[in-house]
């Protein structure tokens, strides 16, 4: 599944307000600055910190 490039360009990490990277293989939006990966469920990004997965920096 791909993510609309326009949507990716306007979404930012809610914790740090920095750009996100789309990880297509994992189906997540990754915030390198916050060390969080936000899931995409049924094509909808879930931009809640409590739903995000902590990733290694």
Topology:
Elements: H1 5-10, E1 21-23, E2 28-31, E3 36-41, E4 44-45, E5 53-54
Provide a concise account of the structure shown.
This protein is 11% helix and 30% strand.
How would you explain this protein's 3D organization?
The chain has 57 residues and is mostly beta strands. It has one domain: Single Sheet (N-terminal domain of TfIIb), CATH 2.20.25. Helices cover 11% and strands 30% of the residues. The chain is built from one helix and five strands, in the order αβββββ. The chain has one helix at residues 5-10; strands at residues 21-23, 28-31, 36-41, 44-45, 53-54. Strands 1, 2, 3, 4 and 5 form a five-stranded antiparallel sheet that branches. β1 (21-23) and β2 form a beta hairpin. This is UPF0434 protein NMP03_12405.
Number of helices: 1
Classify the secondary structure makeup into a structural class: mainly beta
Largest sheet: 5 strands, antiparallel
Give the name of the CATH architecture. Single Sheet
Rg for CA atoms: 10 Å
CATH class: Mainly Beta
Question: How many structural domains can be distinguished in the coordinates?
Answer: 1
Order of helices and strands: HEEEEE
Strand content: 25-35%
Mean pLDDT across residues: 93
The span between the termini is: 25 Å
E-strand count: 5
Looking at the structure, what is the overall shape?
A: globular
Helix content: 10-25%
| Uncertain residue segments | none
CATH topology: N-terminal domain of TfIIb
Family: Belongs to the UPF0434 family.
Protein name: UPF0434 protein NMP03_12405
InterPro entries: Trm112-like (IPR005651)
């Amino acid at each position: 599944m791909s993510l609309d490039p326009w949507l990716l360009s306007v979404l930012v990490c809610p914790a740090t307000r920095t750009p996100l990277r789309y990880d297509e293989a994992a189906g997540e939006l990754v915030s390198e600055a916050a060390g969080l990966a936000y899931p995409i469920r049924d094509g909808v990004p879930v931009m809640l910190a409590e739903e995000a997965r902590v990733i290694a920096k």
